[in-house]
Amino acid sequence: MRRALVIAIFGLAASGPAAAAPVAVQTQLSPQDPQFGDVVTATVAVTVPVGVDPSTVRVHAAFEPYEVLSRTRTSTPGGIEVTSRLRCLDVRCVPRNPIKVFRFEPVRISSGGTTVTRPWPPLRVHSRVTKADEAAPVLRIPPPAAAPDSYRVSPDVFGYALLVLAGLLAVGGAALLVAVGLRRIAPARSRVAPLDRVLAELAASSANGDSGRRRRALEDLARELEPLDESLSAESRVLAWGPDEPRPEAVSELTSRVRTEVGR
Description:
Blueprint: E1 4-11, E2 22-30, E3 40-47, E4 58-60, E5 67-76, E6 79-87, E7 99-102, E8 107-111, E9 114-118, E10 123-126, H1 131-135, H2 155-208, H3 211-225, H4 230-241, H5 248-261
Antiparallel strand pairs: 1-2, 2-3, 3-6, 4-8, 5-6, 7-10, 8-9
């Protein structure tokens, strides 16, 4: 790649005798002949005479329509160097001819109240489209892989078989879930029904005043409560076989507690 170098010698007018000494400026684009999409490095090197502080030098550069990816400034005792990395992927930068020339705005260098400008070399961007591409434009997509001439099993038949198998597996899973649920529900139902029957019998015996029937119902209630609540079971058995007749109010109070604490 050809590289262009523009060297300008100029004086910066500022207070003090050292500021009147000549200053050298170099502007450079690398590469100067890139292809579309390539990164271009723009460098401004400013050399100041002895006695001039390099930190007082300001460099102002614009590169529209290119985008500045990064910019670094390096100071040395003899001057500064500002490096900018540029790239443009915008449609404005696409060469419609083999080469598109860009001319950036001149760079401005300021120091001690004085500003001077220096031009950039022209940037010649080359198109990535060759004459052969223009003569025979094609969409570069690899051809699809050739399908085999025959299959051991028809793809349609195999697909339907997989669907049927998936349906059978789904039905089997649902049936298994239902069976597990019924197993968990069945013990609860087997406990609930006898306890409800005993409570109904106890209520009937209290209503007709049959003491013997009431004691048997309390004993049945005690047996049903043994696996559920030992305290209530013992209380029901005490009422059933105590020396005194089971009082209806005591039976009613026990029944209410059973329904509340056992949840029946």
